[in-house]
Amino acid sequence: MYSNEDDATNSMIHLIKPAPVPINENGDNGRNAYANRQNSVLDENALRKDDTTFIRDQRIQTISQNYEVILESIGEDPSRQGLLKTPKRAAEALVFFTKGYEQSIRDVVSDAIFDEECENMVVVKGIDIYSLCEHHMVPFFGKVSVGYLPNKRVLGLSKVARIVEVFSRRLQVQERLTRQIAEAIAEAIQPRGVAVVIECIHMCMVMRGAEKVNSRTTTSAMLGVFREDPKSREEFLSLGRIAPFY
Ligand SMILES: [Zn+2]
């Protein structure tokens, strides 16, 4: 069904050249350069992409030690039986919740771009999302619907969910997450348009009682045709409608 798989991949890599990495005044092009990088989703290096098992173990150890301090700081006794293994478990959980820092979007999409004459709207809806809000490091969760209008290229369907996974397993704000998913698809296959709608419940709102308990936050990003043409937008919004999940 799909042809020229290799050509499509090569042409993408050829087309999207890595932006030059700016070097700061200390000559450091490592972590700081990440913050100053060119604004291209596909050129982004994941923060923990080069983690070895050794570095990962060190991370877990450091986070565990800090969780022990946190337990003490909230007035608990980290040496009581139920809490003995909590710092390590919590550290492993946190590393898992942020595993989106281990992968770049280029790795996810590079072997899954296919030449296809399809011009019809592609909609992947109701993708589960679990993320951590970067203001409180408390979960927010919900559903995502993604739609795009192909321009001679399509993305392997499972890759849409993978893109969502990579961006959501990082510290996030819902608005940025929405935009990043749309921009990643736009850059990867250069479609005529991309639309993303996310609906989430934020535990930092629900548990702190600051807002209505059941309030959900909806964000959307519309690029290309979806931004310009109300008909395409409406078609996506009816096809991609997110069913109540809570
Ligand atoms: Zn929050």
TrEMBL record:
Pathway field: Cofactor biosynthesis; 7,8-dihydroneopterin triphosphate biosynthesis; 7,8-dihydroneopterin triphosphate from GTP: step 1/1
Residue stretches making up the GTP cyclohydrolase I domain: 64-239
Superkingdom of source: Eukaryota
UniProt entry keywords in alphabetical sequence: GTP-binding, Hydrolase, Nucleotide-binding, Tetrahydrobiopterin biosynthesis
Cellular component GO terms, alphabetical: cytoplasm
EC number, as in UniProt: 3.5.4.16
Family: Belongs to the GTP cyclohydrolase I family.
Identification of the protein by name: GTP cyclohydrolase 1
Lineage of origin: Eukaryota, Metazoa, Spiralia, Gnathifera, Rotifera
